[in-house]
Amino acid sequence: MPKAISIQSFPKAIVHVDGDSFFVGCEVAIDPSLKGKPVITGKERGIVSAASYEAKALGVKRGMSLFEVRRVSPKCIILPSNYELYSLFSVRMYDIVRRYTPEVEEYSIDECFADITGLRRHLNKSYQEIAEHIKKDLASELGITFSVGLAPTKVLAKVASKRNKPNGLCFISGKDIEVFLKDLPVEKVWGIGGQTGAFLNKQGVRTALEFVEKTFTWVERNLSKPYKEIWHELRGSSVLPVSSNDHHVYKSIQKTKTFAPPSKDEVFVFSELSKNIENACIKARRHKLKARKIRFFIKTQDFRYFSREITLRQGTNAPQPIVNLIEGEFGKVFDSGLLYRTTGVTLCDLSTETQRDLFGDFLEVEKVEEIASAVDEIDKKFGKHTVWLGTSTRALKGSRAIEKRQTASKCSRAPIKGETDRKHLYIPSLGEVG
Prior knowledge:
Layout: E1 14-19, H1 22-30, E2 39-41, E3 50-51, H2 53-57, H3 66-72, E4 77-79, H4 83-98, E5 104-108, E6 111-115, H5 120-123, H6 127-142, E7 146-151, H7 154-163, E8 169-171, H8 177-181, H9 194-202, H10 208-212, H11 216-222, H12 225-234, E9 253-263, H13 266-286, E10 290-300, E11 305-316, H14 319-333, E12 340-351, H15 361-382, H16 393-396, H17 400-407
């Protein structure tokens, strides 16, 4: 049987930072009166996006309908999601971790990896002390609790951060790997899904330790490349580097929206899709990207997907030509006899380059892109979606988000790092900012 334990404590030192009920944590940070209460976000979608631990203790789960939530626990405080707020907290989270190391991977809006290998002498702290200080700074400056794990690899760091949630701090040294893996169900390991977990269970592999005790020959014969990497990582050998590449280099841009109640109104459902297209194009213009291929889908109440893919003759980041093309395909996937709950669009084949076409589309697209840029300037001054396409009216009219942006006063103080004209925290401060 191969040895499953590293003989070194920290051949590499990887920290995983994971926000505890992050969306709700952000809401509590700006409204402390919510602290200790069962709080839920997702009012605008009709389903639970995030729940506080107090709400979870009452039986609330992510994805549960709000109707069911009110039946299970009428005491829950239900809030609309504020993704601009969460994004701003997320940027500040990354910045705090980067005070300790430039090697930070922005894995998701509420979690990141950091490689602190070799920084003990530079920071005059042990690896454990560095992880402790990161956790302390995040909590004191953001007002949110985080669970932090330290281990020799990314997969083990994930195991560590989930060990003592919420507000946990856990260290897994190479010499202690066996202790942490012996009771961990293999399907709970990051990257091993339900189907692969079920397959491993049938092979007699039920715990993470039993998995790493398999020979590499067995793993190679029975599993694909990602699981070979997980096998190495669980054994304390780092094969998945912390990627600190710029996350603004997008291969695609996707915008989706689930709405409630579900609808069979074709005009309304298309309006929701049109709004997604506008939002995706706003992001594309922000990063000076143009799409040559578009995918869109609509999803029914019973979770059936209908989609189409369209290739553009001329790349663009303006919504109007995209909406016009999709409008011609929409009737082919929409069925008035079905209830729909979600729409989505993906801008693909993104590029910063513009090529003049042979069919005369370039000048026409260039004109609508100039209009879109003018709309961006208006939105910067008055708020997002001050001006919108007529096809988006049904989805945007009376929107809570628009009303909030148009009525809320701007911060009178100097902006916090990460804030823009469109993103504000309406509080005096969240603590010292580096």
